[in-house]
Amino acid sequence: MSRAGNPFDYARRWWMRAILAASFLFLYFPIVALIAFSFNNSKRNINWRGFTLKYYEKAFANEALHDAFINSMIVASISTLVSTVLGAMLGILLYRFRFPLKGAYEGMVHLPIVIPEVCMGVALLAFFAAIKMPLGLTTITVSHIAFTIPFVAVVIRARMAGFDRSLEEAACDLGAGQWQVMRDITLPYLKPGLIAGAMLAFTLSLDDFVITFFTSGPGSTTFPIKIYSMVRFSVTPEVNAASTLLIVLTLGLTVVAMWVQSRGDGGAGARKEGA
Amino acid sequence: MTEDIIQVTGLTKTFGGVVTAVDAVDFSVPEGAFFALLGPSGCGKTTILRMLAGLEYPTAGSIRIDGAEMVAVPPNRRPVNMVFQSYAVFPHMSVAENVGYGLRVAGVGRADIAERVGAALALVRLDGFEARRPDQLSGGQRQRVALARALVKRPRVLLLDEPLSALDANLREQMRLELVNLQHSVGITFVMVTHDQDEALSMADRIAVMEAGRIRQLATPYELYERPANRFVAEFIGAINTWPATVGTAGVAVAGLGELALDTGGRPAGPATLAVRPEKIAISHAEPTAALIRLPATLRQHVYFGNESQLLFDNPTGRTMVVSVANRDREQARRLAVGSQHWLSWRVEDSMLLDP
Predict the structure, then answer these.
(1) Does A272 reach chain B within 8 Å, measured CB to CB?
(2) Is the Cβ pair A177, B76 closer than 8 Å?
(3) Are A174 and B105 in contact (CB under 8 A)?
(4) In chain A, which residues have their Cβ closer than 8 Å to the Cβ of B96?
(5) DSSP per residue over B21-67, as a string?
(6) Is 80 exceeded by the pLDDT of residue A32?
(7) Given this model, what pLDDT does residue A270 score?
(8) Rounded distance, CA B56 to CA B11, Å?
(9) How many percent of chain B have pLDDT more than 70?
(10) Which residue of B34, B252, B293, B335 lies most exposed, with the fewest beta carbons within 10 A?
(11) How far apart are CA B339 and CA B337, in angstroms?
(12) Closest by Cα among B83, B28, B45 to B195
């Protein structure tokens, strides 16, 4: 067989294609199976017994699951909002300023990314106990803010790395004050980073289990914890249905975020046409 | 006497207390001038420009613009605007939004902005480009946007940081002339930073040549080229032939050239440098008259540029001489064959006497 073509055309090699196919199968087969079996008309997830939507009805009717979902959305929304603002400020600070012990400071703020979640959970639990804060949605939210900030900061920092400082200087030179420069130049540039950072924070918060497990109290069950407690008895198609809903939600959010981003650029284009 | 629009005294900038980028510089720029700060990279010229704009705080010294002390004034309240080396055109704004930005933050009304933006774009010949996005513009067009954006603010002084360095060669030549014409038509004082001597000579009417944070000479292009104050300026601007010389009572002694009856210009007796520009030297077959400084030489290398040639000659002084000649007829370049013998000569008054 001839091997004509570009030496770097790895996508044409059969072994490369095989590895690719195996990777996709490994990554996506479980998810596809999970979704497929959520429609399975059987109490157990082993054999296919026909299509049904009754487990979705059951999941929707499950009040505890419902409450857990609402809790998760509240926690994720508030923690995303706060950690996006704080994380963006941290990212800008790390990009812009030089100060003594900056390396140590940088390492410390990024600690939550590398530290085992169990340790973070235990530490937060000990902290809340020490300040006598009752465990509940508030402690979960505070914990989620604490561990998502560095993720946002990393995204913002990476975005700022490609920033041309002279854009800010030019705006200032043209008469803009510091806040105007931030509003007119820096934030528009950061927008994709802010959206990406917020998305990351939201999904991290939405599906966090370990830290939430340590910092939740009675009556403050979140969605992942509820699903876990259901699985402890048996993996029913109801669990599959609930998980599928979570997948659809995160996918939907991603699509919306991408759409908002592309519309942001297109919208500016449309405005100029009108001017 | 009218007051100069920019007066800089004792301006100093040190970074981290170690590196002195600008060292007690004094200069002033008359209103309406095209002033250039010229020097090799790292000489402090851009730091001076950024201090004029307010983007850098001086360590010491004073900057007066239009009679007012500027050192404590933030950049957004100075009567100067800057064209950045990278142009810094805002990527998320249209051309019109870019040019109008300075007016918008100043609270100028919409109708006024539209009118002044239109006029500014016409000035840089970008009419009709209002709705374009920066990524749809060429480098030259982006530069015009940056120019219009600064000029629309009607600054007292326009600062230009290496304005032509990002353009390709042909466009650069064309923009030199355009910038000069633009400066004439708007009548605003221009201060330009450049490392390109041709750019400074052809555009500016006053040039400060800088080295290591100090101004080595501030003069007109003609004076800088024909009467450089020191060896640094002489060698930085244009090519030049130099020889170690000794100033004596009778004249100037140069090894291989003998005793020359030069006007020492008040230079004290002792070591000095004799210098002459390559294009001032004539090439001939016969020995020139004794009124000229002359020496026999052998052509070692012929560097052909098309319109002119640079000829490197071996000669009795032991120092290779550079002579540049315009190729005034088609055959001239062929007549100057490597290895051929010639006489080189120049007029006494075209010689320069510089520091050793």
Answers:
(1) yes
(2) yes
(3) yes
(4) 272, 275
(5) EEEEEEEEE-TT-EEEEE-STTSSHHHHHHHHHTSS--SEEEEEETT
(6) yes
(7) 36
(8) 12
(9) 99
(10) B335
(11) 6
(12) B45
What are the pLDDT digits (tens) for A235-249? 788 888 888 988 888
CA atoms within 13 A on the CB side of A266: 6
pTM recorded for the entire structure: 0.81
pLDDT in tens, B176-195: 888 899 899 888 999 999 99
**Alpha carbon of B94: minimum distance to chain A alpha carbons (Å):** 7
What is the spatial distance between Cα A207 and Cα A148, in angstroms, rounded to a whole number? 12
A106 touches chain B (CB under 8 A): no
d(CA A79, CA B264): 81
CB B53 within 8 A of CB B46: no
Nearest-Cα residue of chain B relative to residue A188: B92
State whether residue B260 is helix, strand or coil.
Answer: strand
The B residues from 45 to 74 touching A (CB cutoff 8 Å) are 53-55, 74
**CA–CA dist B229, B245 (Å, integer):** 17
* C-alpha span between A241 and A244 (Å, rounded): 5
Domains and CATH numbers, chain B: 4-231 (3.40.50.300), 239-354 (2.40.50.100)
Chain B residues closer than 8 Å to A273 by CB: 131
- Which of B82, B130, B133 shows the shortest C-beta gap to A173? B82
Q: Copy the structure tokens of residue A15.
A: 């072994």
Closest chain A residue to B82, measured at CA: A173
Q: How far is CA A19 from CA A23, A69, B112, in A?
A: 6, 38, 63
Is it the case that residue A234 has pLDDT exceeding 80?
no
3-state class percentages of chain A: helix first, strand second, coil last, to nearest 5 = 75, 0, 25
